[in-house]
Amino acid sequence: MKTEFFFPTKPRGVYRANLTRVKPILWPSAGLSVSTRRYFSVAPYVLLFVSSVLTGCMPSARVTDTRGIGPIGVRYSVQTAISCSETGMKSVIERDFAAIKKMGMDTICLRHCHPQETNSVLESIAACGLKAIVDDPAAIRYVKSGSSSGSLLSSNEEYWTSPVITFRYIGHIVDEITLKRAATCAKAARNKNLKTCVSIDLSFWKTGDLQRQSIDVFDSVVWENLAEEGSHSFDSAVISPGSPSRLNVQAVRCRQYRKSELETVRQWLGEYHLGLTRGCCDGVVFDTYRTLPGDWSGIVIGNSQPSPERGTMIRKISDRCRNWNEYLAGLKVQPVETIENKPEEIKTALFSKGSRKYLLIVNRSYSRFFRSRLSFPTVLGDAHIDRAVTVSTAEDSMIGSVYRVHNQQLRIDLDLSPGEARLFELF
Asked: 420: closest CA among 377, 390, 388?
C-alpha cells in the first residue's frame, strides 16, 4: 500500500496528494484584512504538517553525526593543468576552481604541485571559497619507501600555515607494511594537533587483514575501488561506523567507458551508490579533474571544460552526498535480502543504529532501467518493520512516499534509471 505527498520548500497553498499531478489550492486574499491574510499565509504550512504526521509521510528529523561531513572534492594535478594551459597557471586554475565550485564540490585534493607554487595555488583556492587537502612529501616518501630525512612530517614550507588546508595527505596504503608506516606518521601528526588523510585501495586487501583499530588513527580515509566486486572480499564493518573522529570518504573513478556520455556519467553515479552500500557515507572524492589528451579518465581531458552531462552529474552526486550523510553518518551497515530471489542488477543495504533504520536500494546496472516491485520481510536486522518512507534525494524538497506492510510483507515499487538508488527510512 502506497501513499504519496509532495511537500515543496515554499508552498503557495495547500497541496493535494495525487499520484500523477500536484494542484495548489490558492487561498482567496481580495477584500481580507491584514490579520486575516496573515492567518491564511500560515495555514498551508500547518495543514501540510498535520497531514504528513497523520499519514506517516514525513521522515523523522535528521540526526547530524558529531564528526560532521568529510570533503566533497576532486583530485587536481597542477602540473597537468599547466601542461594543458595556453594562458598560464593562474588563469587556468582560477577557471578550474570556479567550475569545481559550481559543480557542488568544496575541496581540492592538491597533487603534483611544486612547493614554490603552492602558496599561490592555495590563495586561488581560498578566493573561490574552497578548502584543500595537500600532499606531505616527507610522509608520503616514508610510507612508500620507509626512508626519512629525520622528520616524518614536512614542516619547513611556509604554506602549511594556510587556513584552507583541512588535512595532510600522507600516503597510499596497499598492504600491512604501508599501513604501519602511515599509522606512525598519523600518530606523529596527532601529537602536533594536525589532521591526516590516507587512501586505502581495497583491491589489495582480503577479509580480516585490515583491522578497524589499525585505521582509527587516521582522521580521514579515502577508500578506493569500493564498487568492485569479485576481485576482493572485504568486511564493511571495518569501514562503518568507524571511530569518533575518522571520516570515511569514497573515491569515484571518473573514467570514460567508450560508451555514450550518458552511460559514462551513470556509471559514476552507480559507483557512488555502491560505495554507500559498503558504509562509506562521509564524503566523496572524484578521481581526477583533468588528464592529458589520449587518457581515458578524468572529468575533463586536455584544455576542455566539463560537458553539461558531466557537470550535472557531479553536482547531483555532491548534493546527494551532503543530503544523505545527515541520515546515514555513523550507522552500521549490513546486506539485506528480499523475500523472492533478488534481481541480479539490484543491491540492497540496511543502515541501523538504535531506533534509526534506513534501507538503500541500488540499480547497479549502468545500461538498464529497473521497474519492478521488491518484497522484504517484516523483520530486518533486529527490528520489526511497519512501513517505509522515501527519503528525499535533494536538499531543497521533501517527497514522502509511504509503503506499508501488507500480508506480512513490505512491498516497494521501484522505477530506477541506470545507476540510480532510493533511500527509505524504516519504522
From this structure: 390
Task: Determine the Cα–Cα distance for residues 118 and 162; give it in Å rounded to an integer.
Answer: 10
- Residue 125's alpha-carbon distances to 108, 122, 309, in angstroms, are 8, 5, 25
Give the contacts of 121 (CB within 8 A, at least 6 positions apart): 78, 93, 110, 113
248, three cell numbers: 570515511
pLDDT (tens digit per residue) in 125-160: 999 999 999 999 999 999 999 988 778 999 888 899
Residue 144 backbone dihedrals phi, psi, to 5 degrees:
-75, -40
CB-count exposure of residue 240 (10 Å: 0-12, 13-18, 19+): buried
Structural contact between residues 423 and 359, judged by C-beta atoms closer than 8 angstroms? yes
- Which residue has 572529468 as its cell numbers? 299
| CB atoms inside a 10 Å sphere around CB 168 | 25
Do 362 and 270 form a contact (C-beta atoms < 8 A)? yes
* Sign of the torsion formed by the C-alpha atoms of 297, 273, 103 and 401: positive
CA distances in angstroms from 111 to 9, 170, 191, listed in the order given = 40, 12, 25
Taking the C-alpha atoms of residue 312 and residue 265, their distance in angstroms, rounded to an integer, is 9
d(CA 173, CA 154): 19
Q: CA 220 to CA 223: how far, in whole Å? A: 10
Average pLDDT for the chain? 82
Report d(CA 383, CA 379) in Å as an integer: 6
| Residue reference for cell 626512508 | 147
Instruction: Burial-class residue 157 by CB neighbours within 10 Å (0-12, 13-18, 19+).
Output: middle
Pairing verdict, β 196-201 and 220-224: parallel
The whole-model pTM stands at: 0.84
Confirm if 16 and 26 have CB atoms less than 8 A apart.
Answer: no
Q: What is the C-alpha end-to-end distance of the chain, expressed in Å?
A: 15
Provide the strand spans (E) within 211-316: 220-224, 247-253, 283-287, 290-291, 300-301
Q: Rounded to whole angstroms, how far apart are CA atoms 282 and 60?
A: 20
Per-residue pLDDT tens over the stretch 338-372? 888 788 899 999 999 988 999 999 999 998 999 99
